[in-house]
């Protein structure tokens, strides 16, 4: 796996829960790029202060959700709020395999060893190990890698694995049946123990 595929669009942000719902609805309408541009810039459906920010959010969300398929997106828009968040997290994991490794090596390890919280330097330790295994990561600046770490922690907070980004207390997460069903449908059953930290 090349480094770009490994990272995905992690630099784009956390789960963007409210924005993802809006964009998911529009994905199902199969809009042209011109129609997307009109909605995001002219109509400002995401209610952002600058067109640049709106475009960046939209690109990140579309990159994560569109490959999951229309049936998945339909389910995403129909489930409970907690299942919705878990499905967004699943899409992030598919788009950015580095987060899978972080959850496996750092979050699950802390959980296994009965640590009450994720160490504050967890991302730094993890990314240094990853750089040794994947030297191509060195092409990214320290600030970019740090931003990816912040976005990973933010997503873990949003999806309930950690209580806050400051304290990083570890919390149990149990996948909803409809979420497990989609992991199996899309041939990612291996992610179930990772998303439940039961490795």
Explain how this protein is built.
The radius of gyration is 17 Å and the shape is globular. Helices cover 61% and strands 0% of the residues. The chain has eleven helices and no strands. Helix 6 runs parallel beside helix 10 (177-185). It is mainly alpha-helical and 199 residues long. The chain has one domain (10-195): uncharacterized protein from magnetospirillum magneticum domain (fold of a uncharacterized protein from magnetospirillum magneticum).
Strand runs, count: 0
- Give the name of the CATH architecture: Orthogonal Bundle
Kindly report the name of the CATH homologous superfamily.
uncharacterized protein from magnetospirillum magneticum domain
As a percent range, the share of strand residues is: under 5%
Which structural class should the secondary elements be placed in? mainly alpha
The Cα radius of gyration reads: 17 Å
- The number of distinct structural domains comes to 1
Principal-axes geometry comes out as globular
Helix content: 55-70%
Low-confidence segments, given as residue ranges, are none
Question: For the report, how would you describe the main beta sheet?
Answer: none
CATH class: Mainly Alpha
Mean pLDDT figure: 94
Distance between the termini: 23 Å
CATH topology assignment:
fold of a uncharacterized protein from magnetospirillum magneticum
Q: What is the N-to-C succession of helices and strands?
A: HHHHHHHHHHH
Helices, by number, come to 11
